[in-house]
Design brief:
2 copies of one chain form a homodimer. Chain A has 9 helices and 9 strands. By secondary structure, chain A is of the alpha/beta class.
């Protein structure tokens, strides 16, 4: 397959554009201007055109982009047409919410396993799966062919879980615990901080006050 | 106060640096190199130096940055030293998890109200607050001096909730519903997509496969 060299911030914006285009398609809209995409995504029109030009999508002056064609291209670029098998490690409130999150399935993410250390949770249904003992984590990664692990354990346990995931062969980890964790080179890691967006908002409020 | 003109992507990285520095402080580390910050944040050293130079923080060659001083500067820049009063609109699993999220309080975000349309939830405790009827949303925004609203209702109801929030004077909205919403100019909005990070990971997996 073709490998695109796209800066990470652009990839993040492409994800936002793809969601917007999906919504426009559902509304029956055929074409959209870079200005309208820009306004909805909160960036400049020039930025939109630059981002889309990375993979050869160019709008027509005065007409804009064809919504459906652009949407399909973006899905392919972003791998949204691939199915990804995910595991949730830590079924507290957040892990539980994620296991049941309806937004995942539409995007091709299927929760195939959930594990926790708490005996009260083991055996309970969490969305599409039954919570298993965290002792079985390594075994489930292999048996369920897990491609992506979501860490939703308390901060103090996050690094240890990450080390176990890496040792078990995980190549993609999403850490929701409020701490920075480290993984060896070659493992894809994203630290998700639910407060990041609030801090961005807070910063913008400060700037405009 | 001083207004910094910092690109949004830099602000997002500053948030990551600030979390890393907080962790280093807790570990008793005095100085840190741009290379170490870079490695943990997953960016280049040059990027770290550029981001920090925006607000006049420069490391000493061969020594690096003073952790505590840099941490305090970042907190001030990002407004992390401010307290923000937040409201949660929609107390489903995700809203509930956010109401109880321990990471918010440390960062200065206090949940002051939570509202829902479901009579089964109204009157129940969700973290530090009791769920109120969504009919009382406007009244609670004023009474609790809400500065930031988190939308965690289903996608189909998100735009209507946003319109009501804007009409009630909300200036900062964080939308967790899996859809893009629109607000008038002057209102700070961030659309949070819990799958964005998974799609970034998925994209990185594709690139490296």
């Amino acid at each position: 397959m073709r490998v695109y060299k796209i800066p990470e911030a652009s990839v993040m914006r492409l994800v936002v554009y793809s969601r917007l285009l999906g919504q426009l398609m559902a509304e029956g809209v055929d074409t959209v201007s870079s200005r309208d995409i820009a306004r909805c995504a909160g960036v400049s029109s020039a930025q939109v055109r630059k981002d889309l030009a990375y993979f050869g999508a160019f709008g027509t002056r005065g007409v804009g982009y064809q919504v459906e064609r652009l949407y399909d291209s973006l899905r392919e670029i972003l791998g949204q047409d691939k199915q990804r098998r995910i595991m949730i490690v830590g079924v507290g409130r957040l892990g539980w919410a994620l296991a049941c999150y309806p937004g995942f399935y539409n995007k091709g993410y299927t929760v195939k396993a959930a594990v926790d250390v708490n005996p009260m949770l083991i055996g309970k249904a969490a969305g599409p799966v039954v919570v298993a003992d965290i002792k079985r984590m390594e075994e489930l990664i292999a048996a369920q062919e897990i491609e992506m692990a979501l860490i939703t354990v308390p901060a103090a346990a996050a690094q240890e879980v990450a080390d176990r995931l890496v040792a078990a062969g995980s190549r993609a980890i999403l850490n929701f615990a409020p701490c920075v964790i480290r993984v060896p080179h070659g493992v894809q890691l994203r630290n998700v901080d639910l407060t990041v967006n609030m801090e961005m908002l807070s910063f913008n409020l400060l700037q405009n006050s």
